[in-house]
Amino acid sequence: MPRGMVSSWGNLVHADHELRRLASRHADFPQLPARCSVLPFGNGRSYGDSCLNVGGVLLEMRALDRFIAFDRETGVIACEAGVLLDELLAITVPAGWFVPVTPGTRFVTVGGAIANDVHGKNHHVAGTFGCHVRRFELLRSSGARLACSPTENPEWLAATIGGLGLTGVITWAEIQLRRIAGPWLDVETLRFGGLAEFFELCAQSDRDWEHTVAWIDCTRSPGSGLGRGLLQRANHLERGPVGHVDKASRAAARGLRVPFAPPVSLVNGPTLRAFNTFYYHRQRASRKKALQHYESFFYPLDGIRNWNRLYGPRGFYQYQCVVAPESGREAIAELLACVAASGQGSFLAVLKLFGAPASPGMLSFPMQGVTLALDFPNRGAKLARLFAQLDELVAAAGGRLYPAKDARMPGSLFRSGYPRWREFVPFIDPRHSSSFWRRVMAAE
Amino acid sequence: MRRILIIGATSAIAQAAARLWAARREALYLVGRDPARLESIAADLRIRGAARVDHAVMDATDIAAHAAVIERAASFLGGLDTVLIAHGTLSDQTACQESVARTLAEINLNGLSVVALLTLLGNRFEQQRSGTIAVICSVAGDRGRSSNYVYGSAKALVSAFLSGLRQRLHRTGVAVVTLKPGFVDTPMTAAFAKGVLWVAPARVAKGLVAAIDRGRPVAYLPGFWRPIMFLVRAIPERWFRTLKL
Ligand SMILES: Cc1cc2nc3c(=O)[nH]c(=O)nc-3n(C[C@H](O)[C@H](O)[C@H](O)COP(=O)(O)OP(=O)(O)OC[C@H]3O[C@@H](n4cnc5c(N)ncnc54)[C@H](O)[C@@H]3O)c2cc1C
Ligand SMILES: NC(=O)c1ccc[n+]([C@@H]2O[C@H](COP(=O)([O-])OP(=O)(O)OC[C@H]3O[C@@H](n4cnc5c(N)ncnc54)[C@H](OP(=O)(O)O)[C@@H]3O)[C@@H](O)[C@H]2O)c1
Fold it and tell me: How confident is the model at residue A255, as a pLDDT?
């Protein structure tokens, strides 16, 4: 039976896995070698080990890529779980519908988006991806097929949304899309000089803008511009120019790719500082307005295929936390100061306020508060020390880390951040497991 | 709008090709064995933009059923512009060596069933004096190798048959296209470890659709197989027999 080397987006682990594939949603649960665990694998866009199952089987889901039904009047689409958001958008955008919630890359599968209950720049109004899933089918290793919706098997729905692929295999899902007039967004970019200003701008913007997100220059220490950055806010255009703007530049950007990993990380101290300074000063005016295509607005990094290889063969970590609103401001300031003091800045630090909509999953990451995401080239022990400091700040602020981005959080932090994990455990399929799950459940 | 009949429509390669055609708003008629899968593929193709899609259930080895199914396709589509024959099984060579029945069954499916279809389709297209007949053969048909010569010889039979049919129909304006994929990552090859020469069905489908558009006589998919197979064919038999391929 086939085996193959699999790694996730962070390129931290390259591990030999036994591979199986489902060919259609009607296919039976695959035969597994005795005593071997299995984990569904979407498109490997998770950064760490939550999509890996070292020593076990990965069940590749990409071949489940059929559309099942699309109601162009109501915007309800049903498709198999291996369909990429990219493929979905290609069908729905011309019909005037957009995904209700999208992560920062369109190369994720519908199954992966559910299993991590992903969020986007519109969390404050739309909540998570799972909030818009009307129904799905869960295939268990026993062969049982459970229809899950808010009215059928609701407890399985809550376990499987954000359930990290552990409750079974999602074979198909039905999603409520969001109406759009066209592919264009009305985008404003505002400069802010510090965190206080960020929080104020954000609170204002979240009222009138569907999408808000900020980028922070995290190479700055307190006193020299800590927390300065750019806030982007956008709305879908109500009606708009039909396809004339920068088509050519989009096509050109799409063609870029990083063909192989350079021997060392190109992301290091000097390039980081230069990049961050450049990025901040890219915009002279304190406010800039533009019309942007959804691809360049939502998926700026998708223009460069395999940009993750820039971090070299040792790979990179992303650290994404959310902290509660009350303690949020201070905690974020402390986290940024800690990163700046370590001298291990991040290429792009992303800051966003999560809103009130409740996440539907027992283990969903988003909760009301502030989320911060940072990328770090893998520097071994030095980075581990920084992470330990950041962990303490996050735990003290009642926060948690995002499993989709994680490759190292201690089990204790996972369990304190996700108190519903005990309620979740009975829903785990007896044949399912993952490298992530074994790691955070191991006794310390 | 082209009117396209696909036989073996549940094949991964055929599905990938059908999606490209659906995006171009062509009309499609799908033939295969499994009604549930055919229905789900048809629904998918409609959502992807196909002008019309219907399907029929047929086992390719049921030769008596061929004529009626071709007729149904032509009447649903209002005529036929293109036919793609895609069905096949990657024979288990060792099992075939142990069993005459198994060997002949493989030759029957991969070779004779296609020849039977081509006989009917050849006459039909000759009369209508237009259109394209395309068949998925294989690089394996270019030379018999110890690891899969039962499959390879069935594909070779079809390739030779197509070459003759192409000459015969040339003057009528009908194009006959022989498609020769190399290693494609599909259910047929699920058990194989995949190396650098392997490609996804979507890539093969792109070349396949382009070859049909241009009416190319023989297309290797992807194109790098052409020089590789040229070299494989050039090895004298006295050396070739000593190799383990
Ligand atoms: C550039 C970039 C930007 C990103 N931005 C964001 C963002 O803004 N917000 C956000 O929330 N995330 C973001 N992510 C993370 C990404 O959205 C998630 O990791 C997503 O789950 C990846 O989907 P995938 O299809 O690649 O799944 P994988 O990474 O392959 O798997 C993810 C999980 O889903 C499970 N799974 C996959 N398919 C199924 C199935 N059919 N049934 C059951 N379980 C299944 C797997 O077992 C695994 O636990 C980003 C990632 C990248 C690379
Ligand atoms: N994959 C490769 O590496 C490769 C290389 C060269 C050539 N090819 C050729 O490409 C073609 C498509 O194969 P694929 O790779 O796409 O594999 P596939 O997905 O396994 O497709 C094989 C198809 O043949 C159908 N089939 C088998 N027996 C049949 C029968 N008796 N009657 C009707 N249909 C039958 C199967 O139908 P069911 O779904 O009902 O089983 C299936 O749709 C085949 O002709 C194959 O020989 C493949």
Answer: 52
Claim to verify: residue A102 and residue A227 sit in the same structural domain: no
Which residue's CA lies nearest to atom 21 of ligand 1?
A: A112
CB A280 within 8 A of CB A189: no
State how beta strands B3-7 and A67-71 pair: unpaired
Q: Ligand 2 centre from B166 Cα, in Å?
A: 23
Show which of residues 28-57 on chain B sit within 8 Å of chain A, judged by CB atoms: 36-37, 40-41, 43-44, 47-49
* Upper half-sphere CA count for residue A243 (Cβ side, 13 Å): 2
CA distance B137 to B111: 10
Pick from B88, B85, B152: nearest CA to B120: B85
Same domain membership, residue A191 and residue A258: yes
Q: How many domains does one find in chain A? A: 2
A272 shares its domain with A174: no
CA distance A323 to A330: 10
Q: Which atom of ligand 2 is nearest to the CA of B33?
A: 40
Output the residue whose Cα is nearest ligand 2's atom 45.
Answer: B88
Query: Are both A141 and A224 inside the same structural domain?
Result: no
Mean pLDDT of B120-125: 98
Instruction: List the CATH number of the domain containing A275.
Output: 3.30.70.2520
Lowest mean pLDDT across A43-52, A223-232, B2-11:
A223-232
Task: Give the ipTM.
Answer: 0.92
Find the radius of gyration of the CA atoms of chain B.
18
pLDDT in tens, A23-58: 889 999 999 999 999 999 999 999 999 999 999 999
d(CA A431, CA A334): 42
Here the CATH number for the domain that contains residue A120 is 3.30.465.10
Tokens at residue A106, please?
Answer: 């369109």
Q: Give the pLDDT of residue A305.
A: 84
State the residue range of the domain holding A126.
67-180
- For ligand 2, the distance from its centroid to the CA atom of residue A167, given in whole angstroms, is 33
Q: Give the Cα separation of B153 and B202 in Å (integer).
A: 26
Q: Binning pLDDT at 50, 70 and 90, where does residue A218 land?
A: confident
Q: What's the pTM value of the predicted model, to 2 decimals?
A: 0.94
What is the per-residue pLDDT for A259? 67
Q: Is residue A379 part of a domain?
A: yes
Nearest-CA neighbor of A425 among A375, A362, A360? A362
What is the CA(A159)–ligand 1 centre distance, in A? 16
* A274 and A379 assigned to the same domain: yes
For range A108-130, the mean pLDDT: 98
Verify that A130 and A250 share a domain, yes or no: no
> Which residues make beta-bridge pairs with A211?
A234
Q: How far apart are CA A112 and CA B201, in angstroms?
A: 22
> Residue A244 has what pLDDT?
42
Tokens of A419: 């108190």
Asked if residue A216 belongs to a domain, the reply is yes
β-strand A145-148 against A67-71: which pairing, if any? unpaired
A279-334 pLDDT, tens digit per residue, is: 777 776 788 899 999 999 999 888 888 888 888 899 999 999 999 988 888 999 99
Peptide bond into B222 cis (omega under 30): yes
Chain A contact for B24 (CB, 8 A cutoff): no
Q: Let me know if residue A257 belongs to a domain.
A: yes
Contact between A135 and A154 under an 8 Å Cβ cutoff? The reply is: no
Query: Does residue B177's CB lie within 6 angstroms of at least one atom of ligand 2?
Result: no
What are the φ/ψ torsions at residue A213 (nearest 5 degrees)? -160, 150
Q: Which residue of A has its CA nearest to B193?
A: A2
What is the residue type of A421?
Answer: W
Half-sphere exposure of B145 (CA within 13 A, CB side): 16
